[in-house]
């Protein structure tokens, strides 16, 4: 395909998925989607290969969505798909790793033929069950499990499924509104892709997608071939809710001749009794992100650029969750997956990696009744610590690598829920020292505006194992989590009193290089 023609068509595709994501954010009910951008949008060809992704989104969602399309279609009779059909699932092993992340896949028809699929995954405010915390003992305590089904059939809603979903969640209006936003974003993608085909005289996007995917894979393999072949090891240690310490170990094998990288997690911690286990698709999502962002971050992220990166997982491993392991707080471990990989890559591309950062976002969910007696359940809201320092720049403060989710503004949270913040500011000096210092964490305090007891689900990490510096850089500071001034380690769902105050300091990032 002519290079100029390809660039024009590629720009159109990026415009389509970006408009799809913007529409989803504008229409969504929940602050976690609307304000924080905890979402993913992708466009897939007729073979269910991801061709393009929106610029908005998290790596965990985007790269899980890349696998989800083929997983959904493998459980669907594709000969029975009709215009107006919309597929849905929140199966953790098919998509993004826990029940809160619901994936929607809409076939895009041109005439009577499917030419593509529009997909989206977003974090929903509630899915019933335990909530966003890590305290469930098996997956069936964690909420409503939606198998692969048709949410809409030929444009008509599946009333039975809608009724089941609404009856099993605490905030049905918010959840159904967010589902509607996902469906609407798929309709926009369908309209825009058909308009592109009309504009450029295309019957489908088969040739275009093949060209994009082949070029992306070739460019990724060429970037890998610049590395010396060999096996490089990295390890990361961190504590999670309840004080459990997790070890993640990786052996990163570079095959320069084939242009492939294999990441083996042998030696990592075994399964956890808490809901922090990570399904393979989510592990793969953050592992490939670490490689891609280090080697050639400007390349498109699609089926082609992901193909040369493979992972190997031991059978009994915290990052290879098996049924019926609890997984609701899988991000607490999953967001640490890049760090041992980056430590391994530091041995071959030291200027392209970063020191350890705070890791997983600190996630909070509150439930109860406000002063007027009206029930509330918040969507989760997140707070980040400091990012690890880079070779030539300091780490960013209150920015969480690798997720990229924004913090919901305090003003939005206070307007949406009966919460009152007592402080929110950077905690200076928490970043590690070094030639380039690590980013600082932040301090946050809040109370609930209620006259009755309320429930707190929260998931801090790195309360004892601080982020490590790199190449002689200093470690960042560990985090602090307190209730009424008392340090708390066991943060499973607890009942709180109206006057209780929650206070936390998120960890600082590690420094890079000796001073």
Please characterize this protein's 3D structure.
- This protein is of the alpha+beta class and 515 residues long.
- The protein folds into two domains: 3-216, Beta-Lactamase, CATH 3.30.450; 354-515, no CATH class.
- Helices cover 28% and strands 24% of the residues.
- It is built from eleven helices and 21 strands.
- The chain has helices at 3-27, 31-34, 59-74, 159-167, 172-200, 206-225, 280-295, 303-306, 331-334, 338-345, 410-416, and strands spanning 39-45, 50-53, 86-89, 101-110, 113-123, 149-153, 156-157, 230-239, 245-255, 260-264, 309-312, 362-369, 375-377, 381-383, 419-427, 441-448, 454-459, 480-483, 486-487, 494-496, 502-505.
- Strands 2-1-5-4-3-6-7 form a seven-stranded antiparallel beta sheet, sandwiched between helices. Strands 12, 13, 14, 17 and 20 form a five-stranded antiparallel beta sheet that branches. A five-stranded antiparallel beta sheet has the order 15-16-21-18-19, with helices on one face.
- It is globular and about 65 Å long.
- The model has no long low-confidence stretch (mean pLDDT 95).
- One of its GO terms (molecular function) is 5-oxoprolinase (ATP-hydrolyzing) activity.
- This is N-methylhydantoinase B.
- It holds the Pfam family Hydantoinase_B.
- It comes from Hoeflea marina.
- One of its GO terms (biological process) is glutathione metabolic process.
């Amino acid at each position: 395909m002519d290079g100029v023609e390809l660039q024009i068509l590629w720009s159109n595709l990026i415009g389509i998925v970006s408009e799809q994501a913007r529409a989803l954010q504008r229409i969504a009910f929940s602050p976690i989607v609307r304000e924080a951008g905890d979402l993913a949008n992708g466009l897939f060809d007729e073979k269910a290969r991801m061709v393009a992704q929106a610029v908005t989104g998290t790596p965990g969602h985007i790269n899980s969505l890349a696998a989800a399309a083929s997983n959904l279609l493998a459980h669907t009779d594709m000969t029975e798909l009709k215009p107006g059909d919309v597929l849905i699932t929140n199966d953790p092993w098919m998509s993004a790793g826990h029940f809160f992340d619901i994936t929607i896949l809409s076939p895009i028809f041109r005439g009577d033929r499917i030419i593509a699929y529009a997909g989206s995954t977003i974090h929903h405010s509630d899915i019933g069950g335990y909530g966003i915390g890590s305290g469930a003992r098996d997956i069936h305590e964690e909420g409503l499990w939606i198998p692969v089904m048709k949410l809409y059939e030929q444009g008509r809603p599946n009333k039975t499924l809608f009724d089941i979903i609404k009856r099993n969640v605490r905030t049905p209006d918010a959840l159904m509104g967010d589902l509607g936003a996902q469906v609407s974003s798929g309709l926009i993608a369908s309209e825009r892709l058909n308009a592109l085909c009309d504009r450029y005289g295309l019957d489908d996007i088969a040739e275009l997608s093949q060209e994009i995917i082949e070029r992306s894979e070739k460019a990724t393999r060429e970037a890998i071939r610049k590395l010396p072949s060999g096996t490089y090891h990295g390890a990361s240690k961190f504590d999670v809710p309840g004080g459990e310490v997790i070890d993640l170990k990786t052996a990163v094998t570079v095959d320069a001749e084939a242009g492939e990288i294999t990441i083996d997690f042998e030696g990592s911690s075994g399964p956890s009794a808490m809901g922090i286990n990570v399904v393979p698709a989510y592990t793969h999502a953050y592992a490939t992100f670490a490689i891609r962002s280090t080697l050639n971050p400007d390349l498109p992220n699609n089926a082609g650029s992901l193909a040369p990166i493979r992972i190997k997982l031991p059978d009994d491993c915290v990052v290879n969750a098996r049924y019926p392991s609890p997984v609701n707080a899988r991000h607490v471990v999953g967001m640490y997956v890049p760090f041992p990989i980056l430590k391994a890559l530091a041995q071959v591309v030291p200027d392209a990696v970063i020191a350890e950062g705070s890791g997983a976002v600190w996630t909070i969910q509150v439930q109860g009744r406000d002063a007027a007696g009206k029930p509330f359940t918040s969507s989760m809201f997140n707070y980040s610590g400091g990012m690890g320092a880079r070779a030539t720049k300091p780490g960013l403060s209150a920015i969480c690598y690798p997720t990229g989710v924004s913090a919901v503004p305090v003003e939005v949270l206070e307007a949406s829920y009966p919460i009152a913040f007592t402080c929110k500011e950077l905690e200076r000096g928490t970043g590690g020292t070094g030639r380039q210092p690590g980013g600082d964490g932040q301090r946050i305090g809040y109370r609930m505006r209620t006259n009755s007891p309320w429930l707190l689900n929260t998931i801090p990490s790195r309360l004892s194992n601080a982020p490590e510096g790199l190449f002689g850089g200093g470690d960042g500071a560990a985090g602090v989590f307190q209730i009424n001034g008392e340090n708390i380690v066991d943060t499973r769902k607890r009942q709180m009193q109206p006057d209780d105050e929650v206070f936390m300091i998120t960890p600082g990032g590690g420094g890079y290089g000796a001073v």
